[in-house]
Design brief:
Distance between the termini: 36 Å
CATH architecture of the largest domain: 3-Layer(aba) Sandwich
Number of domains: 2
Order of helices and strands: HHEHEHEEHEHEE
Strand order of the largest sheet: 3-2-1-4-5-7-6
Structural class: alpha/beta
Shape: globular
Largest sheet: 7 strands, mixed
Helix content: 25-40%
């Protein structure tokens, strides 16, 4: 059911799709902490229409994207063709026990707003997927809506609310602390947004 809802968003108007390549990703690559010579194999978890995947491919990464929306992936293929870059896009459920066509570990993983869109056991299932797709030394950039629930508006059309999922303080450490070193990467408390940079032990 949820996939069908996102198909409609991507068919008509997905507000997050207009953002394009994420600034946190640009900043990280510009810093030199991640580069294709050391982190060759990259994957965008919940890649949508593929802006980040194409951006990484154009900079020399062996770039993959996975999403459960076939409409989003069709747009991603078009974007890659227009940019004349070689990417791999896979349709899959990030909460499943396995995803066909995704084998081996990735050196660099990114997520912009997928994990925080899940609830309960599905959130834990995506963390299990991230663990399966990574190796010691892998780097993971996690961007999410983030903040104490009591600080969120009850309802919002342009950001997180108490009615929508978000990550709360301490949850990133709870989900990833067993296998990953975690450091804050960016924060925008006024918009209830944060990014974390994780390195797998």
């Amino acid at each position: 059911m949820k996939s069908a809802i996102y198909d409609l968003f991507y068919k008509y108007w997905a507000p997050w799709d207009a953002v394009g390549v994420r600034e946190d990703l640009k900043t990280l690559l510009a810093s030199g902490r991640v580069d294709p010579s050391r982190h060759r194999r990259s994957i965008d978890l919940g890649c949508g229409s593929g802006a980040n995947v194409v951006y990484l491919a154009a900079r020399g990464f062996d770039s993959f994207g996975v999403d459960f929306s076939p409409v989003a992936l069709a747009k991603a293929h078009e974007r890659a063709n227009e940019a004349a870059v070689d990417c791999t896009f896979v349709q899959g459920d990030l909460t499943a026990d396995s995803i066909d066509e995704l084998e081996g570990a990735f050196d660099f993983l990114i997520d912009f707003g997928t994990l925080d869109d899940l609830r309960g056991h599905q959130r834990r299932a995506m963390v299990d997927t991230i663990d399966r797709l990574s190796r010691p030394g892998s780097v993971f950039l996690e961007w999410c809506f983030y903040g104490p629930v009591e600080d969120l508006p009850f309802f919002s059309l342009n950001g997180p609310s108490r009615l929508a999922p978000t990550l709360v303080p301490g949850e990133v450490e709870e989900l990833f602390g067993g296998f990953w070193e975690i450091e804050p990467f960016s924060a925008n408390p006024e918009r209830h947004q944060a990014a974390f940079l994780l390195t797998k032990r």
